[in-house]
Request: fold
Amino acid sequence: MDGFQPKVPSKPFLGYGELIEHLADKGIEIGDEKSAHAVLSRVGYYHLNAYLPAVKRTIGPPVSLASVYNAYVFDMMIQAILFEYISYFEVAFRAQMAHGLARQYGEFAHLVPDAFKNGMERKDMVRRYRIERDRKRRRASGVGGRRADASRNAVQGFQEHGCR
Reply:
């Protein structure tokens, strides 16, 4: 990092044990330290910490690391469900748009300038089209994967390590 100087003083690095102590100092009930270490190593302190205010408002003190982790798991499960159903809507919307554009402009409507209000919209749409096309090609070739599968695998992994 040649010449990089942060504008704000950085916080000192804390290992997992020190992060656990820091959470305990903030009044978070840790429970089993092995489980706490597993949670922090997989989710991360700052990501998990983002759920802390909502958990404090919902259940009030004392707050346990397990309750914060459960909020994270719940959020991941809701995201997976929403993502799945939003995907259905997105596909239906795209199908309707593609059908309407093809009816009016032909099969390569996405490349017809008159189908767009201005050139910037067209350029942006073509750029996004290419990104999406490449993403689908990678997915078809086995690169990538479904977010819901990743979420289920993460939850299963945490449960196997006694984090509930």
User: Anything to note?
Assistant: The longest strand covers residues 28-29.
